[in-house]
Design brief:
Elements: H1 3-19, H2 21-34, E1 58-60, H3 75-79, E2 85-91, E3 99-107, H4 116-120, E4 126-128, H5 141-145, E5 147-148, H6 151-155
Antiparallel strand pairs: 1-4, 2-3, 3-5
Length: about 160
C-alpha cells in the first residue's frame, strides 16, 4: 500500500470513530423498521388464510345420502409411512361381497401429513382438511390420546349417523 492510501484509511477510521458511524447505521436500520406495519398474527383471535393445497387433519368423507365412502380396503393403512392409520373392516350383511370400515383410527401424534393415504384411497374416502390446530376443548381420555374413531367429527365434515 502506498503512503497516501494508508493515510486516507487512517483518517477514515478516525472520522468514523469520531462521528459514531456504527451508531448512525444501527439507528437507520431501527428507524426504517419502526414505521413498517407488523405481520404478527394474534393467533387465537386471528386466523391465517390457508391455501387450498394445505395438508391438515384427515377427514373421512361420506356420500350425499350419508353412507360412508370407506370400503375398508386397508390401502391407506399400507401406504402410510408412519403407520398411524388403523382400519378395522367387516363384511356388509346386506350386500354380498361388500365390505365397510367398522372403525377408522388415526394417531395424529404420529401423522406426518404426507397425503399418501389420500392418494392411495381408491374411492376418495379420505381428504386433507384445512384444520391446522389439533387442540381439543374437552379434557377426556380420547382427546388426550389424539385418537379419533371418526376423523370427520374433528375436521368438521359430515358427522356419522348412529345406528
Amino acid at each position: 500500500m502506498t503512503e497516501k492510501t494508508e493515510e486516507k484509511s487512517l483518517l477514515r477510521e478516525v472520522w468514523d470513530a469520531l462521528s459514531f458511524s456504527e451508531i448512525r447505521m444501527a439507528m437507520r436500520v431501527a428507524l426504517k423498521h419502526m414505521f413498517v406495519k407488523p405481520v404478527t398474527f394474534q393467533y387465537p383471535r386471528e386466523k391465517r388464510t390457508i391455501p387450498d393445497a394445505h395438508r391438515g387433519a384427515l377427514g373421512l368423507l361420506r356420500y350425499d345420502d350419508g353412507t360412508e365412502r370407506c370400503v375398508g380396503c386397508d390401502l391407506c393403512e399400507a401406504a402410510c409411512p408412519s403407520r398411524c392409520i388403523k382400519v378395522v373392516s367387516a363384511e356388509n350383511p346386506d350386500v354380498p361381497l361388500s365390505r365397510y370400515a367398522t372403525e377408522f383410527y388415526i394417531d395424529i401424534t404420529k401423522c406426518v401429513f404426507c397425503g399418501y393415504c389420500v392418494e392411495a384411497c381408491p374411492v376418495n374416502a379420505l381428504a386433507m382438511t384445512k384444520m391446522y390446530a389439533h387442540n381439543q376443548e374437552k379434557n377426556d381420555t380420547e382427546s388426550l390420546q389424539y385418537r379419533y374413531k371418526f376423523p370427520h367429527q374433528v375436521a368438521g365434515l359430515t358427522p356419522p349417523q348412529d345406528s
